[in-house]
Amino acid sequence: MRIPLSIARAFIAGDEKATTEVYLDCRKLLYFIIRSIVTNPEDAADVYQDVFVSVLKNRSAITSPSHLVSYLARTAENMALNFAKRQGALVDYSDLMDAYGTEEHQNAYLQEFIPFLSDLENAVLVYKLEYGFTFREIAVLTGVSRQTADVAYKAAIRKIRKNLGGSTHVRKKES
Amino acid sequence: MFAKKKAKQIIEEKLDLETPEVPGFDVTASRKVRSPKWWVYAVSGLALVGVSIGAGFGIFNLLNNPRSVDLNATQMTHPVKPANRTYSGVVSAKSAEIYEAFAQKLVPLIFAGVGDQSMAFSVFDAFVAVSMTVYCSSDEVQSSYSTLLGASSMSEVTKAVQELTLTLGTNVSYVDPYDHKTKTSGGASVNSFWLKDTVPLAEGAEDVLSGLQNDYYASVYHTAASTDGLKGWLSDNAPAGFDDLPKLQLDDPPDTASVSAFFVRDNFDVTGGNSNPYQTEYESKQHYLDYTLGDGTHKQVDYIESSYPGPVYTGTSFTGVHGHINKLGLDYYLPDAGTKPQDIMADVIAENYEPSASNYRLCVSAPYFLIRTENLNFTENLKTMDSLFEGILMQKLVDPSAAQVLSEALQSSVLKYDFTGFYAVSITVVATDTGVEADPKYDFKLDRPHIFNVNYPLTLSDGITHARLPLFYGQVYDPAYPQYGGPRSDPS
Fold first, then answer.
1. Does residue A27 sit in the same domain as residue A85?
2. Which chain B residues in 63-122 lie under 8 Å from chain A, judged by CB atoms?
3. A101/A65 same-domain check
């Protein structure tokens, strides 16, 4: 996912048109990040709005326009984690492990994407297919290692193929 | 592909359906669509356009050293024109888009880490060598690579390599489509593939080797690539007039090496009995350009002055002009005072600049340059570009028991710009070696009564023997902590 540098700079400078464009480009991603951590939809909507309010308030402090998407994503992630922490829904806030659960199916929102995948597999799939993130970026957003994200993605594609048909385009494990 | 498409469709519908709007935003505003542009660059601010058109020849010099596969079956000892070649002589928009995607993903990573030094990077070489390596990889790696570059399949990437290679000049003969009399402008692209003779080949490897010959115009050698071997190969394949060749050092001969070299020359047009004004100027030694070096010191340097109409491009912290040599484009981007070239590189690559509203009479004073880049290692940049380069490669060629991993991606180049014009030679090697697969996963979940031992690991006085002196032994039947995720309390 990429925002042109000129738009990012204009956004940071407070340009109204650029603000709308950044909002249009990022709103689904930010909401997804928040909902994957904050499971209650009303709470998630509140956090979602707070994220934009916070970003608009502090945008002049953004020093690297080329990393605007990363900044927005981390802001959404941190605010969602802080909210979950206040609600007592998380035990370990540092590595997001609780957000995706030790159990495979905890997050009803993630389960609505592709029901036969685990929460983590659904999350990785969205980040990879919809936003084109690298596994390094996905690892930051989900708190798992790159290898784990890679494995989750390949497992997800295999399961989709098994259930929906089609070729996998991921490497099969050598026996 | 259906699986991914179907999943993407479900995801998009779900995101569309679920994402609420934030009050206060005008969500009906139209979206800006950026159209892809065709550009090629070999050095900061250097835009290459089509150079030469060559005939499509391939050489298959497979040395007669068969091991686990009958390589004689595909051995050819003389250059042959690949069969079934339907080349229209143009580069398609899709091929340009794929190449552009490769450049945009890799080049910013490379220039972000080079520091304050003159250097150049040939995108074309790298694209061909990396694509050759992926060509030998599994379907899954090929699919990931294709997706990364916006191609629908590896065939589309291969087609892009073919079209660009043929357009920029292929094979050992120096082809000049512009000026057959003076032969002052043109290029040549030559490729080779080196395979260590001890590497066990996968079933069907001969088809992959034939594909490298036919689809990538590569000479294939069934021997390990070495520094001397590559030096000899480059020298043997250099067209006439290309005497100053880059040096590339391979520490250890790798199991496989995809090698691509690119030669290009674009001399100033001095045909028709005209003398070269730049040469006259150089020989008179009357004018110099006051140039400030990277360390802030000054020197006077030879330069070329040209005048032509055109816009001035303005970006954040820099200005730029587009220009040309003879057949090649040459664009310059000048950082504002206090800004370094590498600080503006990302914006230049992404074309984040705007032209002036009207044209100027541009009077461009630009120094001669000679840039030698030796053994630029972009292995980590490739891995950063996409995690597929961290994984197992070459599965179509090498038996899975000797799983190959990317070991080195190196490039060396020589670029000169002076009163004669532009001259460049570059060579890229993407090498793989037998790698160690990640250890297989073994879940060891202590979810029932178990034993533990707390010990003190140390090395004994002989410096060799290690011991783990037991300090505690114990057995756990009830960990005595509250249920994970439940309300926390002090375990004491």
1. yes
2. none
3. no
Q: How many Å lie between the alpha carbon of B359 and the closest alpha carbon of chain A?
A: 22
Is there a single domain that holds both residue A30 and residue A68? yes
pLDDT tens-digit map of B428-439? 999 998 765 444
* Mean pLDDT to the nearest integer, A103-110: 69
- Band (pLDDT 50/70/90 cuts) for residue B415 is very high
Across the interface, do B346 and A5 touch by the CB < 8 Å criterion? Answer: yes
Q: How far is CA B364 from CA B289, B300, B324, B439, in A?
A: 11, 16, 11, 58
What is the CATH superfamily name and number for domain B41-270+369-434?
Antithrombin, subunit I, domain 2 (3.30.497.10)
pLDDT band at residue B175 under the 50/70/90 scheme: very low
Does A5 contact B34 at a Cβ distance shorter than 8 Å?
A: no
Interface of A with B in 97-126 (CB under 8 A): 98, 102, 109, 112-114, 125-126
CB B334, CB B351: distance < 8 Å: no
Same domain, A85 and A95: no
Distances (CA, A) of B75 to A48, B223, B477: 64, 14, 69
Verdict on whether the full-model pTM lies above 0.80: no
Does residue A48 sit in the same domain as residue A129?
A: no
Count of alpha carbons within 13 angstroms of residue B451, beta-carbon side? 3
ipTM rounded to 2 decimals: 0.81
Contact A129 B11 (CB under 8 A): yes
Q: Which of B3, B31, B488 is nearest residue A157 as measured by Cβ atoms? A: B3
Give the model's pLDDT for residue A155.
87
Same domain assignment for residues A60 and A124: no
The domain boundary, picked from A38, A56, A90, lies at A90
Instruction: State the pLDDT at residue A171.
Output: 43
**Residue at B474: amino acid letter:** G
Pairing of strands B289-292, B354-355: unpaired
Q: Is the dihedral of CA B270, B275, B279, B281 positive or negative?
A: negative
In this predicted model, what pLDDT tens digit does every residue of B271-282 receive, in sequence order?
A: 656 677 778 778
- Residues A135, A58, single domain; the answer is no
Domain boundary among A32, A55, A90: A90
